[in-house]
């Protein structure tokens, strides 16, 4: 299983620059996980006035958590939210999906 999320990043400044785009995942509430877990990041260089697309692939490794009851890795069912931003406190876009 793999999910891919794409996000467009634009440099609206007057100089060439770089951005570290980060992907955080919120698990279903029943999973008992922290509010956001970092699941990917990518540093992109963007020329002034240009934009680029950053793709994040979430495979079974990024979607699973350790279940202490069964002593195994599991992918919980329910609603997940993927947050994209410059940091965990600077989220610029979010989207949800259900497994």
Automatic annotation (TrEMBL):
Its main location: secreted. Signal peptide: none annotated. It catalyses: Hydrolysis of terminal, non-reducing beta-D-glucosyl residues with release of beta-D-glucose. Keywords: Hydrolase, Secreted, Signal. GO terms for cellular component: extracellular region. It is an enzyme of class 3 (hydrolase). GO terms for molecular function: beta-glucosidase activity. It holds the Pfam family Fn3-like. GO terms for biological process: glucan catabolic process. InterPro entries: Cellulose_deg_GH3, Fn3-like, Ig-like_fold. It is found in: Secreted. Residues 19-88 form the Fibronectin type III-like domain. Its EC number is 3.2.1.21. Belongs to the glycosyl hydrolase 3 family. Beta-glucosidases are one of a number of cellulolytic enzymes involved in the degradation of cellulosic biomass. Catalyzes the last step releasing glucose from the inhibitory cellobiose. This is beta-glucosidase. It comes from Rhizopus oryzae (Mucormycosis agent). The lineage of its organism: Eukaryota, Fungi, Fungi incertae sedis, Mucoromycota, Mucoromycotina.
